[in-house]
Amino acid sequence: MRFNRHAAPNRRLCLTYFVRKLKDKMDKDIVSEAHEVRSRILNYSILTEIELENFIECYFIDNEEKKGKFKEFILSEEFFTFEEKIKIFGKIIKEKSFKIVDEFHKEYDLKDKEELIRKIRYIQEIRNAIAHNHPFRNEKTNEITLKYKHEKKNKEITLNNDFNKEFFNLYHKIFLLLHFKLK
């Protein structure tokens, strides 16, 4: 076998190319995961807002025909924002006594109304952060990160599946709590 003096550089080139391709794939995987997390969070936020609409609608309107008109003329209008829905929801639950009914029809009192409102506001905060800020790659962790400002405080979240699970668990708790029975 003859020695090829050009073989070593070609192998290095090949290895460099392979490493670059692998890094690109990993980058695409991380970016893809971040996009999926962003998408899911926006979806959970929309569903939370819809549940608030349903709650408000059921509180004010008994008639099915009028419910649809109430939703069309008021709840779906752009002036009636997520923030406005949270404010009205907060006023309603502070005024009334509520029971939470689980899947086994067992009733519980809703004791910490402020905590529920804080959780809904957190969902709104993350939704706004994702909708109005662009994520970037954190050079230290190599993960996709989102920096944003909320109530004059700098905040940061990592858009990965762990954050998605945490956010989904919060959304799921709120979803269950929004199925109140008025007392």
Structure description:
The protein has about 180 residues and is of the alpha+beta class. About 65% of the residues lie in helices and about 15% in strands. It is built from 5 helices and 6 strands. The chain has a 3-stranded antiparallel sheet with strand order 2-1-6, with no helix packed on it. Strands 3-4-5 form a 3-stranded antiparallel sheet. A hairpin with a 6-residue loop joins strand 3 and strand 4. Helix 1 packs across helix 3, helix 1 packs parallel to helix 5 and helix 3 runs antiparallel to helix 4. The longest helix has about 55 residues. The mean pLDDT is about 80.
Entry keywords:
183 residues, elongated, 6 strands, alpha+beta
Helices and strands in order:
Elements: H1 7-60, H2 64-75, H3 82-95, E1 98-101, E2 107-109, H4 113-132, E3 136-137, E4 144-150, E5 153-158, H5 161-177, E6 180-182
Antiparallel strand pairs: 1-2, 1-6, 3-4, 4-5
Helix pairs in contact: 1-3, 1-4, 1-5, 3-4, 4-5
Describe the structure in brief.
It is built from five helices and six strands.
Instruction: Please give the order of strands in the largest beta sheet.
Output: 2-1-6
Q: How does the helix and strand content classify structurally?
A: alpha+beta
Question: What characterizes the major β-sheet?
Answer: 3 strands, antiparallel
Q: Could you name the ranges where pLDDT drops below 50 across 5 or more consecutive residues?
A: none
Q: Radius of gyration, rounded?
A: 24 Å
Strand runs, count = 6
Order of helices and strands: HHHEEHEEEHE
Distance between the termini: 90 Å
Question: Helix share of residues?
Answer: 55-70%
Mean pLDDT: 78
Query: DSSP helix count?
Result: 5
User: What is the 3D form?
Assistant: elongated
How much of the sequence lies in strands comes to 5-15%
